[in-house]
Amino acid sequence: MVPPGGIALFFKNFSTWEAVPGIYLEDLIVQEEARGQGLGLALFAELARIADERGYARIEWACLDWNTPSLDFYHALGAIRRNDWIMHRLEKKDFIALRALGE
User: 10, 56, 73, 74: which one is catalytic?
Assistant: First the structure.
């Protein structure tokens, strides 16, 4: 059981390349006053337990390139920074315009 002070918001994803399910970590939040006490590690350990019990093959997430403390933390966990995938986004005005093209 993870004590209050943080949350890991995640959902199941699926790799068509590898034909395996995994976890996508949408957000990891540790309240400022709870940082440095091992809560982030506890949240990741719980994600690892869930992924293992469900037979998933990976845990993935995104992190802003300027967030050095988080990047250092993830690296210390053994995470590998992926530079081969480039994230893309359509914002609402853009997908509304795209939708109109298909009508």
Answer: 74
